[in-house]
Each structure stands twice: as C-alpha cells, then as structure tokens.
Amino acid sequence: MHSHKPWWMKGLFIIAMIAIAGTVFGWIVTLLWNWLMTSLFGLRSIGFWEGLGLFLLGKVLFGGFRGFGGAHRHRHRHHRRLHERWERMTPQERESFSRGLRHCPWGKRSGAAQDRDVSSS
Predict the structure, then answer these.
(1) How far is residue 47's CA from residue 12's CA, in Å, rounded to a whole number?
(2) Is 121 in contact with 97 (CB distance < 8 Å)?
(3) Spatial distance between the Cα atoms of 31 and 41, rounded to a whole number of angstroms
(4) Are residues 47 and 11 part of one domain?
C-alpha cells in the first residue's frame, strides 16, 4: 500500500528543497566570487545575499527557470524528431548523411563505430 501525503506536505517539502538549494548555491557563488574575483580582478568581497542575487541573475539571463528536467525534456524531444527524420530517409540518404558527419568536427567518432552505425541501419 502506498501512503499518499497530503498536498500541503508535498508543498512544504518542495519549499524546503528550494530553500536548501538556494542557500547552497548562494554560498557556492559567494565563496567562488570571494576566492576568484577578488584576487583575479581586484573586486570587493560580497556577502551571502549578493551571492544569491548573482546566482538568480545568472539563472534569469542564461538558464531560465524551466523546472526540474526541462533541458532533458527538450533534448529528448529533439532526439525523437531526429529519429523520426532518420526513419523517413532512404538508405541512400542515410549513407549520404553519415558520410557528411565524418567531415564535421562534432560528428567525428572512431571509424569502426561509424561503420557499425551505417551497416546496422
């Protein structure tokens, strides 16, 4: 039997996890800033709240607030679309595509791995 927690207990747990994560990341940013930025660039030391503010600013500017696993869901959707496109290709199109990957820097793999992928399709 599964014991279901009331909604308010789940909410309290989520709020507690956010508070703990915020505290940890705020201290990490503060410690890294005070360790690196003061010695490298001669900037002044910062406190916890400034570190937390920098963390939140970085999330807004660069990461966004997609929730847990947001990037994973996007990557999964992207891979599914690529797989669907691959399935619609003819064997000649697949071979041509695989040959093209051998010439781009991010597509380089060992020759044996490429040959296996092409021959197994």
Answers:
(1) 27
(2) no
(3) 15
(4) yes
Rounded distance between C-alpha atoms, residue 110 and residue 118, angstroms = 13
Asked if 94 and 86 touch (Cβ cutoff 8 Å), the reply is: yes
Q: Mean pLDDT: which of 5-9, 23-27, 97-101 is highest?
A: 23-27
**What separation in angstroms does the CA of 43 have from each of 19, 28, 46, 58?**
28, 17, 9, 18
Specify the pTM: 0.49
Return the amino acid letter for 116.
Answer: R
Distance (Å, rounded) from C-alpha 76 to C-alpha 67? Answer: 15
* Total domains, the chain: 2
- pLDDT value at residue 65: 64
Same structural domain for residues 56 and 16?
Answer: yes
Do 94 and 118 contact (CB within 8 A), yes or no?
Answer: yes
Q: For residue range 16-38, list pLDDT tens digits in order.
A: 999 999 999 999 999 999 999 99
Range of the domain at 91: 83-120
Higher pLDDT, 10 or 66: 10
Residue 110 carries which side chain, given as an amino acid letter? S
